[in-house]
Specification:
Layout: E1 5-12, E2 33-37, H1 43-56, E3 61-67, H2 71-81, E4 88-104, E5 112-126, E6 137-138, H3 158-173, H4 185-203
Parallel strand pairs: 2-3
Antiparallel strand pairs: 1-4, 3-5, 4-5, 4-6
Length: 219
């Protein structure tokens, strides 16, 4: 049935600053830097921009937002930024509503509108302290709840996660231990002498072995 329709546009309701899930983190709505991240975002570019804003004192709060394929990259941006600043962090996960429109290719059919819920993430990072009454506040230089150690439920820091990742990459690129080692020179010389003796023996063979007898009747 879907062969009778073609994919149309996706319509997403844009989120405003007042709709961000951080009303309990800020008593009054402060001015903050809002960074939108998607799958094609250049991490280095957005990190450099956010650092310049914080260094100039234009903002003291940065909020990273991403959804769908941009969720992982959004987390990466937050992890990289807090290596350079003592930031308080609050992470909220929710869903964004997207309408998919399918247009009919035959007369008599109506347009189909499908509604999908896409996971999204919003990360608030502040240079100023956040009230301890706020749920899931991560203080500077503390372990977060995004990366977890393997084999248990103990959260690990971003530095520990990156170390394990580099270690795993180096291990996977390590050469195989069962590769054949080159033979010692003494064995190579012995093999060379053996080959030379075999060649000399073949050259000293009797000529009669290679000459066929002549039949006298054919003379």
């Amino acid at each position: 049935m879907m062969q009778m329709f073609r994919k149309g546009e996706n319509i997403e309701k844009p989120m405003t600053k007042s709709e961000l899930p951080f009303k309990d983190c800020m008593s009054v709505e402060k001015d903050f830097l809002w960074m939108h991240v998607n799958g094609g975002t250049k991490v280095n570019n957005v990190i450099t921009y956010a650092k310049n804003v914080l260094d100039k004192g234009e903002h003291r709060i940065v909020i990273w937002s991403g959804q769908g394929g941009g969720v992982v990259k959004t987390i990466s941006c937050a992890e990289i930024l807090k290596r350079s600043y003592p930031l308080y962090q609050v992470t909220r996960i929710c869903y964004a509503t997207v309408e998919e429109h399918w247009l009919p290719q035959m007369e008599g059919l109506e347009e189909i509108v499908a509604t999908r819920q896409i996971p999204s993430i919003h990360i608030l990072m502040s240079l100023d302290a956040i009230n301890d009454d706020v749920h899931d506040v991560q203080k500077p230089n503390t372990k977060g709840d995004i990366w977890f150690s393997e084999g248990n439920n103990t959260p690990s820091t971003s530095a520990e996660h990156n170390y394990r990742q580099r270690h795993d990459n180096n291990t996977s690129r390590r050469p195989h231990q069962n590769r054949r080692r080159p033979k010692p020179q003494s064995e190579q010389r012995q093999l060379t002498n053996t080959n030379e003796n075999n060649e000399q023996s073949s050259s000293n063979a009797s000529p009669s072995e290679s000459i066929k007898p002549i039949n006298s009747q054919n003379l």
